[in-house]
Amino acid sequence: MSTYIKIGDMAQLNGISIQTLRYYEMKGLLEPAFKDPLTGYRYYHIEQSVRLDHIQFLKTLQYTLTEIHTLLQLDCYATFEDSILQKEEELKLESKAIEHRLNLINHLKQANHVYQASKERHGIEIVNFPQRYCYTFNVQQNIYQMEIESYEYHLRLFKKHLQEERYPFLFSCIGSILNKENFVNGIFYSDLMFIIIPERLKTMSNYSLPAGNYAVTYCDAFDKELCTLKTFREKIATLGYQISGDYICEVIYEWSPLADQKRNMFIRLQLPISETG
């Protein structure tokens, strides 16, 4: 006949607390082998440790105690296997979500690096970019005539549209596109917002930024872009660059500190170019 083990010894042997054993009892997962009717003391058999092993194993797979209780009542392996396969799919989705959050962190690190390296630069530099994929959204107003309130309102419309399209990533760093013809002619009219999407989701893209050299400059506020853009256009003409595509206003970095309700942003103005001659 098996020897009874005090609850404290059972807890110590299995690396858990007495409170955990009592909680498992309350949840119907592991009843003591014997309760002294006079003292109320709880005693276990060492063989009951296998139940604790199973509980701890299933908890590692992120089953809840309620789910574990249901599983441990099964006497058919096929049904248990169905549950395991379902949990596998749940963990795969969770893994993708974790990967997505890690990608966002990497994006924030890169954006902060660009911000720290470029916030004091005021001239034009040439940067080579790989092909980038975007999802665009037309608005009903010229972005360059918007006040910040109108701009924020149209961002809400874009965000809602992306939610309806089940866009799976963070709504952040929304840019705008000024077509080449308007840029060349000094017509500052844009009704096209965009968000850059990861290459692995390029099938969602409806616009791409070609790989190649871009003339780049920076500004640090929404209401400074138009003035900076006009100066940027003049310098492009002076330097003799051949414009080869649309002008891109890319928001690199944005923040909303508690001390300021406005959207603070750092903008990279960029234009695909080729040198003349």
UniProtKB/TrEMBL annotation:
Domain HTH merR-type: 4-74
Keywords of this entry: DNA-binding, Repressor, Transcription, Transcription regulation
InterPro entries noted in UniProt: DNA-bd_dom_put_sf, MerR-type_HTH_dom, MerR_fam
Name of protein: DNA-binding transcriptional regulator, MerR family
GO terms assigned for molecular function: DNA binding; DNA-binding transcription factor activity
Source organism: Tindallia magadiensis
Pfam families in the cross-refs: MerR_1
Superkingdom: Bacteria
SMART domains with a match to the protein in the record: HTH_MERR (SM00422)
